[in-house]
Protein 1
Amino acid sequence: MPELPEVETIRRRLEPVLVGRRFESVEILDPRLVRPLDPLEIGLELGGELVAAVERRGKYLIVRFESERVLLIHLRMTGSLRHAPAGSLADDPHRRAVVRLDDSSDVAYRDVRRFGTWQLLEPGELDPYLRTRLGSEPLSGAFTSRALREKLHSRRAPLKAVLLDQRVVAGLGNIYVDEALWLARLHPLRPANTVDTADELSLLHRSIRRVLKAGITRQGATLRDYSTPDGGSGGMQHEFKVYGRDGEPCERCGTPIEKTRAGGRGTWYCPRCQLREP
Ligand SMILES: [Zn+2]
């Protein structure tokens, strides 16, 4: 599912095609996307809006309009966006919305599992909405190893589960947490509050940033549903050190990668490099 690097890749591709463009018409094809609101009404409300900026916060894509309203998109499990000349995309049973822009191009939203959401927020509603849901942005200056310590030291839950909590670090998901923990040599099931030495915290902090930056450089990871807005694939899946690689040798020590569960999610780690006991 799309995590920070995938959403950031989408943002970077959409920004130049959306900013300065007007939404000529918007068709919401699946009421689940905007429920409990009326899809026809939301489509009409979005029509005529002029795009001022395309931003990202955690895994949210933020389309800001000149009117100061915001379209807040969350792709959840399988959402993706395509940009193409109007009417040029093949029919797609999983298409859930289409935005026609004033330069005769379309932005089409596809979502197989249908967990994604589009929310139209009024001026002033975005900040309070995100504040309660998201911790610091891991690639910003606000995310320091000290800030990370503040988030971990009161939590006894497994480290992996805590890092998946969007209020701890915004934008991490199953893939990049496993990769960061391998890089930092930390066991995913270690209680979060036991990661408390300056060295461990600093290494974890750096590892999180490193895997996210690598993911952005590779334009995300394409496992099944994710694609870039021009229909291309990401390349990060070729760089995974542990994710999905059970039985394969660890690149550092040769020990077979193992799979377990943490935070309710399939979790991969090296049993030799990532010891349960510090
Ligand atoms: Zn290893």
Protein 2
Amino acid sequence: MLTVSRRGLLASAAITTAFGLNKKLALFRPAHAETSLEPTNGVYKYKVGSVGVTAVYDGIWRKPHDPTFIKNASVEETKAALAKAGLTTEFMPIPLTVIVLKIGNKYVMVDAGSGVGQWQANATHLPANMNAAGIDRSQISTIVVSHFHPDHIWGLMEKGTNAAVFPNAELIVNSTEYKWWTEPGRVEKLAEGRRPAGKRIADVFPTWKNWKLVEDNAELAPGVRLLAAPGHTPGHSAFLVTSDKDQLMVSNDTMYVPALLAPHPEWQGAYDQDGAAAVATRRKLIDRVIADKMMICGAHFPFPGAGVFAKDGDAYSFTPVAQS
Ligand SMILES: [Zn+2]
């Protein structure tokens, strides 16, 4: 087992199942770290109590290095953090994984992925991997949406026509997020680069009747609660899954890419609407996950997108689950 920390990769004993993962965490192999970002098998199943979790790989953004990406760190510093985590430094690797929860006989999907051909050239795998996982999209009765960034919601809309991909599913989102993006005059107030996405959201989402707007701490499905996690966007939310004695924090973009933000939780991304709020939310959420010995997953964690955190001085270390 290797742990990503401020000091780099540390060998450690196999982590036990204290956080409720019903199998031993497999060895993370840094020599194949880049390969592990592009899994050959893009489906991974695990259990949280009686809830079935299926991690489904969508793809990866091989983002060119950009000095504006982290507001308070240089490209050299971000490259050093990637290297310490055993990842490539050729580009900023931003993988994307969607999870589907099976609660009883009901399927609840967390976010909808990036939509084939609507986000990045290498994020095209979600439909095939859903099929491989044995999940037909018509079976999904509920989609809980963490926030309105393209990689999380373009999968709700057909390319070109914007037709609803899930017209019969209930779409649940924090009311703060929905209202912020759809309020009159929002598009003009967005940074220029975000305006096309903002316009698409404002044009399409209010025409759909299957939205359910909820507040902080709402129960979205049996054992699934929304936790407001603002900063990345004003209504960005995490989801806490509880079943029997097990808990899984579905953190979405709170910890973004842990190779960067575990050792540097104070780094603020250009993608964060309110960087200071994002940092405060990140620390609060990760501290809770550690205190409660919880498993955590994140949309941009290395596939299969789950792991555990520990305190490391003023920062954190992250131990990803590797696909066995
Ligand atoms: Zn994202």
Protein 3
Amino acid sequence: MWTHEHDELRRSLSRFIDAEINPHVEEWEAAEIFPAHELFAKMGRLGYLGLTKPVEYGGSGLDYSYSVAMAETLGRIDCGGVPMAIGVQTDMATPALARFGSDELRREFLAPTVRGEFVACLGVSEVGAGSDVASIRTTARKDGDDYVINGGKMWTTNGTQADWCCLLANTGEGAVHKNKSLICVPMKTRGVSVAKKIRKIGMFSSDTAQLHFDDVRVPQRYRIGEEGQGFIYQMQQFQEERLWAAANAIEGLLGCLDTTIEYVRERRIFGQAVLEQQVVFHRLAELKTEIESLRALTYRATELYIAGQDVTELASMSKLKAGRLLREVPDACLQYWGGMGYTWENRVSRLYRDGRLASIGGGADEVMLGIIAKAMGIFPKQLR
Ligand SMILES: Cc1cc2nc3c(=O)[nH]c(=O)nc-3n(C[C@H](O)[C@H](O)[C@H](O)COP(=O)(O)OP(=O)(O)OC[C@H]3O[C@@H](n4cnc5c(N)ncnc54)[C@H](O)[C@@H]3O)c2cc1C
């Protein structure tokens, strides 16, 4: 699967991160926002925002292994918020539009998003509906040639800066898996408001918003694909989101391990280096093995995905494993730093805070376990 083109992508993106992102991370973390338009315009010019998007809309038309290579490399960024915001733009808010959107819609929304002129966000979760996506309440009612949208979205990454939202709304009555549509909603439309920017325990540089939609009128031609297929499209879109999240975890986890090894090699207690305690070097060796298992699982899922197979089970396993390791690895490493691990600026303590999201966002660990159990045929029938 991996070629020298993947290596070149990893090398050039690493150079970009070193020059254009990492020097600003501390400032963006402190400001609790990063300049999405400025950064995305630079990334768009270099082609990073459309690796897998169709060539007709400014993308490179590459297979999904390139997104995985990019997600992995973005793990070298010194915080979780900026890579997450980039992932929303490339692999969470845009896959359904790229695959099912009309030509007109892709020219209007996808092409400028690939160029980095538009910032995108994904509006699925609501105050009363997160894990249970089918129970969302936001509606888009037909009126003439328009939809009139009412409701609200919660936890919207990029929400305070976005130019448009890939919005999941109920467009009809009937079965909850067949009554929804994805709609491109320009954020400057009258009736769209950012209710609040949410303060969080991590991912500081990424803005997270609560959005309100109050009689928001958009043309029906802004719907992505067929009416009533939105839930299905979103579940497909989640496959890429979950593979992306798993790949993005790997470098951060390895970096956490490496910086800890450097520290415990030097730090001496009771006359010897902390690293010389068997319990410590055994644990670090165990964790490295776990991270490499995550990499192997994610690559296997990617390989099958680009071969056209259904990887719901493997993508869910990858996301689950990433969430688990993002809790386990920084927690173990932080312990070996002692008091220094409990300080704010420490890279390990940042991953401890930022990484906690991975077991919740984009489908909680328990949701992944339910999907895996269904694929295994062991999910009890009486449970939905
Ligand atoms: C920083 C951040 C950024 C986000 N960005 C976006 C975004 O850009 N767009 C978007 O649409 N959403 C976004 N989300 C929302 C995220 O996807 C949801 O938080 C997630 O799906 C969980 O939903 P919830 O928070 O409503 O938790 P709930 O659905 O209330 O679940 C609470 C807990 O219940 C447990 N649980 C859930 N289901 C089961 C089950 N079947 N069996 C057993 N236990 C279960 C889990 O432990 C879960 O954590 C973001 C969230 C955060 C925190």
Protein 4
Amino acid sequence: MDKATTSPAPGRKVNRIGLEMQAYRGGKSTLCAGCGHNAISERITEAFFEMGVDAGRVIKLSGIGCSSKSPAYFLGASHGFNAVHGRMPSVATGAAVANKSLLAIGVSGDGDTGAIGIGQFVHLMRRNVSMIYIVENNGCYGLTKGQLSPTADVGSTLKNGVVNDLPAVDLCALAIELGASFVARSFSGDKKQVLSLLKAAISHRGTVMLDIISPCVTFNDHEGSTKSYSYVKDHDEPLGEISFVPFFDDISVDYEPGTVQTVQLHDGSKVYLRKLELDYDPTDKVEAQRVLAEAARRGEFATGLIYVEPERPDFVALLNLVDEPLATLPTESVRPPRSVLDAIIDSLR
Ligand SMILES: Cc1ncc(C[n+]2csc(CCOP(=O)(O)OP(=O)(O)O)c2C)c(N)n1
Ligand code: SF4
Ligand SMILES: [Mg+2]
């Protein structure tokens, strides 16, 4: 990034590479006011600013969905690739292998990841591709008007009364099982926790799977949902016809390790967040799986850094590549000279 064009005004806060927060912002959000996804974009902006990351070495990736639109709203100076629905992991894997000097951050949704993209997600996790993979989890397909997603809890209902009778996919439990080396869960309204998890994620090498419960204020607003706010609008209005988007205050929470925070959503429904104890050991895989299963049994979400395995080699390390990123290797290094090709052809005659 050209520092000369972004030199800070006197007295303004700058980070360790001399840039202001403004240098880390993206375009103006077109998502609904109050959508949890907007709060996450703000935290990503803050985290990259506070960590003093050079935005020119970051690649933002996504699939399709409201959540997948988010990379447009942060790190405007970074590279970006908006992939096909559910196909972000393969694009991210290609980018990470081609240029290992990039810091990759992907934003997906519970539909993009848990439904159409589940196969690609599985292989990204087991390869431990070095990237930050965020699932903005609202338990529904926000962009296509609120259908239940695979992370919707049993008993969740659609507005028309349809009840979800399928068990939810726990993407954190799956990621741990598959081999992701940093697995965490939070709530979009917990500014402190989301920010500190993102800062830790930026420092990690390997797959960071960060599941952030992020309410959809527009569609997932029914009583009984465990991942939603509702908004106040005419109840006779048919689902899918949005005549206005009301403003909501963001719900913010701040609670101590080891305690349970009940979050009352706009429609009166609740989510229960249990922050892991301060002395919780996130390096114990079996304990991490037990904590997730126990929280699910109680109808709660365990939040915090659930599992970390800092020493696990990432995919690029396993491939044993040359030191220089493949993308910047000179032609002479990657293309054999004519004489070598001729010798091969001769040997086959
Ligand atoms: C191949 C394909 N199938 C289906 C769709 C329709 N579609 C677009 S976004 C989406 C689901 C989005 O849900 P989620 O990933 O949870 O994101 P959210 O909008 O809730 O943030 C679907 C089914 C599509 N765009 N492409
Ligand atoms: S429809 Fe839901 S998920 Fe999409 S922007 Fe609006 S509140 Fe967010
Ligand atoms: Mg969703």
